[in-house]
């Protein structure tokens, strides 16, 4: 074991065998240093959300209850208790994890603000309600979304690391886990995010809870989302209006949303007439709230975090993206046209100069969003290339 520090929290974690293919899973208790950025953003996003909760004057800080349902070393929950100051329950069904969580509570002197439990996550979440439920499991959160939806009162935070099923690379696994058909296109990362958000919206709806995505990001090989819970049938029905399908033309690159869960979908591409492909059901609404992004950025400034600059960059890109589903990739279009790529900012400016809206995205350096039709995008790219 060795002691590491993230934020202002000290945590004892096992040292994995040096020859392991994925060291975090080879250790007796899981700890992945690569997820520090995810946890740093979690501290800032949870701090921002708790400020909103407290401003409603219904709760005191210490009355806000957070659960880290898959806690391993306890690091996520300990950081929330210590760095945000709310009550955190750290749960893991592994006996080794429970012992380590208890030891880490002592190291940080957080006995009064924390609870360590050893239950199956679904059992705990079906039994107990929490203001904030955080799911950070191995791979997919799908088997836990029902219990989390039953438990959560104010915010659901969820990580999914099963990007291959979510993004359409493992099509059948994606359909099994999320009851949605993904498409493995150049915007597969956004596809994964919208499949996950769609699954969350439908699970919450069973419990008459609507949702407002406050922040979501796809970073490296995971998807992470922070969803405010909007209780009641009216809000739930309104939430489901953001569900729908996405049409994609593999020939010309046309893409477009179709809102609703029982809808007619054109089989022919409206631009080139080729057969379209369909993905869904998906979340088609905004995947972040701009004001919340600003609040998270303010929190990133005041908390001592090792990944602050990276985190700020991601959240700023998220904030500034247009709310138009399914980004384009400049390189994919250039390849099709045999055109050479300019800097992405030059393309954005050219789209704007032609009277369209355009923005970059946080998904990749070559991606952009625009309300320009695909034919116009291609003309602009061709003209820039010349
Ligand atoms: N959240 C942790 C972090 O940020 O370091 C990492 C959690 S790790 C990916 C997943 C943990 O979930 C493991 O420690 C495992 O023992 C635990 N686990 C797996 N299935 C579980 C279940 N059904 N109920 C409770 N714990 C479970």
SSE layout and pairing:
Layout: E1 2-6, E2 9-13, H1 23-26, H2 36-55, E3 65-68, H3 75-84, E4 87-91, H4 95-107, E5 114-117, H5 121-127, E6 130-135, H6 145-151, E7 152-160, H7 163-167, H8 171-178, H9 188-206, E8 209-219, E9 222-231, H10 233-240, E10 243-248, E11 255-259, E12 277-283, H11 290-302, H12 308-320, E13 328-329, H13 330-337, H14 344-353, E14 358-360, E15 367-370, H15 374-385
Parallel strand pairs: 3-4, 3-6, 4-5, 6-7
Antiparallel strand pairs: 1-2, 7-9, 8-9, 10-11, 10-12, 13-15, 14-15
S-adenosylmethionine binds near residues 30, 31 and 76.
Strand content: 15-25%
Order of strands, main sheet, comes to 5-4-3-6-7-9-8
Small molecules held by this entry:
S-adenosylmethionine
Give the helix level as a range of percent.
40-55%
Q: How many strand segments? A: 15
Q: Quote the distance from N terminus to C terminus.
A: 59 Å
Low-confidence stretches: none
The class by helix and strand makeup works out as: alpha/beta
Run of helices and strands: EEHHEHEHEHEHEHHHEEHEEEHHEHHEEH
Radius of gyration (CA) equals 22 Å
Q: Which descriptor suits the 3D outline?
A: globular
């Amino acid at each position: 074991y060795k002691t590491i520090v993230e934020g202002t929290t000290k945590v004892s974690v096992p040292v994995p065998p040096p020859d392991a293919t994925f060291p975090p899973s080879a250790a007796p208790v899981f700890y992945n240093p690569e997820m520090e950025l995810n946890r740093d953003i979690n501290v800032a996003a949870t701090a921002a959300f708790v400020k909103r909760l407290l401003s409603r004057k219904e709760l005191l800080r210490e009355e806000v209850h957070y659960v880290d349902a898959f806690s391993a070393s306890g690091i996520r929950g300990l950081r929330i208790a210590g760095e945000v100051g709310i009550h955190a329950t750290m749960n893991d069904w592994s006996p080794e994890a429970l012992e380590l969580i208890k030891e880490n509570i002592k190291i940080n002197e957080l006995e009064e603000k924390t609870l360590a439990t050893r239950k199956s996550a679904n059992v705990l979440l079906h039994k107990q309600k929490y203001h904030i439920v955080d799911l950070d499991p191995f791979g997919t959160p799908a088997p836990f979304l029902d219990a989390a939806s039953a438990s959560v009162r104010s915010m659901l935070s969820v990580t999914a690391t099963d990007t291959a099923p979510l993004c359409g690379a493992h099509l059948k696994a994606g359909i099994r886990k999320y009851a949605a058909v993904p498409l493995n296109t150049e915007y597969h990362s956004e596809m994964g995010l919208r499949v996950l958000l769609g699954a969350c919206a439908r699970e919450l709806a069973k419990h008459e809870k609507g949702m407002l995505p406050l922040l979501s990001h796809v970073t490296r090989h995971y998807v992470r989302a922070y969803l405010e819970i909007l209780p009641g049938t009216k809000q739930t029905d309104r939430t489901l209006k953001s569900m729908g399908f996405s049409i994609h033309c593999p020939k010309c690159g046309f893409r477009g949303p179709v809102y609703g869960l029982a809808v007619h979908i054109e089989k022919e591409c409206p631009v080139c007439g080729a057969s379209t492909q369909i993905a869904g059901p998906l979340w088609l609404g905004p995947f972040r709230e701009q004001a919340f992004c600003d609040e998270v950025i303010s929190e990133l400034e005041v908390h001592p975090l090792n990944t602050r600059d990276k985190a700020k960059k991601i959240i700023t890109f998220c904030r500034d993206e247009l709310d138009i589903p399914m980004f384009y990739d400049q390189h994919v279009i250039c390849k099709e046209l045999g055109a050479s790529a300019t800097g992405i900012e030059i393309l954005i400016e050219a789209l704007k100069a032609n009277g369209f809206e355009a923005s970059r995205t946080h998904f990749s350096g070559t991606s952009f969003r625009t309300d320009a039709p695909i034919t116009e995008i291609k003309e602009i790219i061709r003209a820039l290339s010349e």
